Amino acid sequence: MSEGGKANLGCEALGNTDPGGLRLRLPATSANLGPGFDSAAVALDFYLEIDAVPAKEFSIAATGRNREHISRLEGNLILEIYKSLLKANGRPVLPLAIQTNNEIPLGMGCGSSAAGRLAAIALAVHFGRLDWSSERILEEAAALEGHPDNAAACWLGGFVAAACEGRRVHVARVAPPAEWRAIVVLPTEPLATSKARALLPATYSRADVVANIQSAALLGLAFAQGREDLLRIAMQDRIHQPYRAPVCPLLPPLLPLAGEYGILGAALSGAGPAVLVITGSEESLPGATAAIRQALAGEMEPELKLCRFEQAGTSQFPYSLRSA
């Protein structure tokens, strides 16, 4: 297995007939980060955790967020992708007994679909003994997602910029500054990504495109160099946030906080409706959270999730059932 346990899981045969169990920990992600539409994302330190073993029939025991939805066997994203990949690659569909603990809210723009799809692919690679590299797994996830940003951040961790060339995914990754912190501001109601995408126009003005290119050019360098002074402008966007603001009511009152109260930048998390706020340090969190709550006074009562940036990405732990 490659460093970090991310490649060639299908080669880890733990016995002649027993593929063994698999434990996964997949991080949440926040994509776009303002101007990096479908191309930039960062991993966060709350997770979808899965423990799967071969069984006589499929079962899911779920704890954590959205457990009722996750425990359903019919129309389950993870199971449907797992089954379809095995069938497409000429492998028998091995039923699994799955235990999950989920910290990633569904439909909030925190990368739940990317984590679920990567989990399904990793399960198929392991239990189907597919000889897939880390790059192949990421390519499959990006193809299923329709864009590479969330999948790349979830799989690799850190801050990523990603682009597709056909099915091939090109990724540049950096470790965000260790002292930076994130606040994910979660509303009470989710928003389907399909609905958020339907709000976007077919064309944009040259001025808006140029402004986004300028901000996106700064975004990766701000993360790579720890440039707190750049992040406010680097997270400004004219391509998707103005059009999604009517269905993401937390965004308009929170965007003006960037540059004050220890807040370095703010943007929709993915397609929304959650908002990602970045601060420069742990010490900045109390002032930033107070400012967020004050800005939203009289609005819906949000949940504030205080985070660090996840550096390692997806963790995988194959194990023998004989020793588990």
Please provide a written account of the structure.
With 324 residues, the protein is an alpha+beta fold. The protein has two domains: 3-173, Ribosomal Protein S5, domain 2; 181-307, Alpha-Beta Plaits. 32% of the residues lie in helices and 26% in strands. The chain has helices at 67-70, 77-88, 112-127, 134-145, 149-156, 193-198, 206-225, 228-234, 241-244, 251-254, 285-295, and strands spanning 21-32, 36-54, 59-64, 96-102, 159-165, 168-174, 181-186, 263-268, 275-279, 303-307, 315-319. A hairpin with a 6-residue loop joins strand 8 (263-268) and strand 9. Helix 4 (134-145) runs antiparallel to helix 5 (149-156) and helix 7 runs antiparallel to helix 8. The protein is globular and about 55 Å long.
